[in-house]
Specification:
single chain; mainly alpha; 20 helices; globular
């Protein structure tokens, strides 16, 4: 929220005398003419005006629309996007081919700070990502080098210590956001977890050890994602996906594909998000519990909803609910314990909001808020903001602002760029009511909350 406004874009839009809604509509029409489904709204335009990144394809459509409006050639560079008017180059996934490769990669990642600037918008080539997913889907387990000569012999006690530490850091992440514990977690991973993977262990201990290491690596990805360092988060996720291949942990690997889908969806790459979610469902079939499959289907629904596919999203939501009805018929791993009824309701309310099914969105969001354990502070904050946005869609301005105020009250200590984006999006949506005293008071509240957060850093 501290990014600089995009002065070049604002200048061109002022010259073109086009509103945020007008530009969004022109972009949607231009994309539809090309056979592209574009989810751009006036909120998206405001976010770009405020300095947010943009997908290269979307920037190109915007430039073409404004070229037509102004009667001269406009490039994405003229709009302040990308360096030297060039679209951001796709970043290679770099899926590690061997176990030593992935362990070396993870060691290097653990030396990187989330505060290190991530150059430009994260752009991943479809072919590159598909290659990594295919490699995981068809791979055989590498297998463990058990009972080898080593300076250290470890047992299940060491694995339990890692899992206990992961649980502690996960609770910190849920309560305070990814910015709070990432530094300590990466130090722990680098100096306490990774060295154990080179120790001597039995088959049983080694399998559990690699599973625990993957859980910590995934949490490092989430905390980087939550602070807004998407490049680092993506590299952690693809490396963790490769780590699950060592022991053939298909369920956790499918979970990582779901995480990748979540990130792609958040960044606006809905086509990749849909493909990744579907890959998680296919990869998990016959290996994942019904509770896990419910989670995977819910993320397919999230991606389809953001892409505007109401029929597909409805099918995926129903599939997620059917899987969840059988959630208690299998024993789940501890890492899946957060996936309860409230979590599923939270996923579905996001879908209904994005599909503009306002009454249903309010109902699901209210249920998610009412049933979410306060220890999951970030999740509760997300659900409250979705409820506020849904109430606004339903024409309930006063109720929406009251709900958003509760979210800010409970979330102003969250070092989470994602939570802050939810708040910013809501502020943009109510900006047409800026003179309303309730809205003005809310904007003051957000300003004060951010000031307190800056003071705490």
């Amino acid at each position: 929220m501290s990014r600089e406004p995009n002065a070049q874009l604002n200048a061109v839009l002022d010259e073109a005398k086009v509103s945020n809604k007008g530009l969004a509509k022109r972009m949607q029409d231009a994309a539809a003419h090309r056979g592209i489904s574009l989810g751009t709204t006036h909120v998206s335009v405001q976010r770009w005006r405020d300095g947010a990144g943009i997908q290269p394809q979307t920037a190109a459509i915007m430039a073409d629309v404004l070229s037509t409006k102004l009667g001269r050639r406009i490039t994405p560079g003229d709009l302040g996007f990308f360096d030297h008017a060039r679209p951001a180059a796709p970043q290679p996934v770099g899926y590690p081919s061997t176990v030593p490769d992935v362990l070396s990669r993870l060691g290097s990642l653990a030396d990187e700070r989330t505060e290190t600037p991530s150059p430009g918008q994260l752009v991943i080539a479809d072919a590159d990502l598909s290659s990594a997913v295919l490699s995981w889907m068809i791979a055989r387990p590498d297998g463990l080098l058990t009972d080898r000569p080593a300076s250290q012999r470890i047992g299940m006690r060491d694995v339990r210590a890692i899992r206990d530490a992961a649980g502690m850091f996960m609770q910190l992440d849920f309560k305070y956001g990814g910015g709070h514990g990432h530094k300590a977690l990466r130090h722990y991973f680098r100096h306490e977890v990774l060295p154990l993977l080179d120790a001597s262990y039995s088959e049983r201990v080694g399998t559990a050890l690699f599973g625990a290491a993957a859980e910590v690596s995934q949490l490092l990805a989430w905390t980087a994602y939550d602070t807004g360092n998407h490049r680092l988060a993506h590299r952690y996720l693809t490396s963790t996906l490769r780590l699950t291949q060592v022991t053939g942990d298909r369920m956790f690997g499918a979970r990582i594909l779901t995480n990748l889908s979540h990130q792609a969806n958040y960044l606006g790459n809905h086509a990749q998000a849909i493909q990744l979610a579907r890959a998680s469902l296919e990869g998990g079939k016959g290996k994942a519990t019904p509770r896990a499959m419910s989670l995977f289907a819910a993320h397919e629904a999230r991606a389809l909803s953001n892409a505007g596919d109401a029929i597909g999203a409805g099918r995926a939501m129903n599939e997620a609910e059917r899987y969840f009805e059988r959630a208690d018929t299998a024993t789940d791993p501890e890492w899946l314990s957060y996936m309860n009824a409230a979590e599923l309701e939270g996923e579905i309310c996001h879908c209904l909001r994005d599909l503009k099914q306002r009454r249903e969105a309010v109902a699901y969001a209210q249920r998610a808020v009412d049933s979410t354990d306060p220890k999951y502070a970030r999740t509760l904050g997300f659900c409250r903001m979705v409820l506020a946005q849904s109430q606004l869609l339903n024409g309930e301005l006063e109720a929406a602002v009251t709900t958003a105020s509760l979210a800010v009250d409970g979330g102003d200590s969250l070092q989470s760029s994602r939570f802050q984006r939810y708040v910013t999006d809501f502020q943009n949506e109510v900006s047409v009511h800026a003179t309303n005293p309730t809205v003005a008071a809310f904007n003051d509240q957000v300003h004060d909350a951010l000031a307190r957060l800056d003071d705490d850093e």
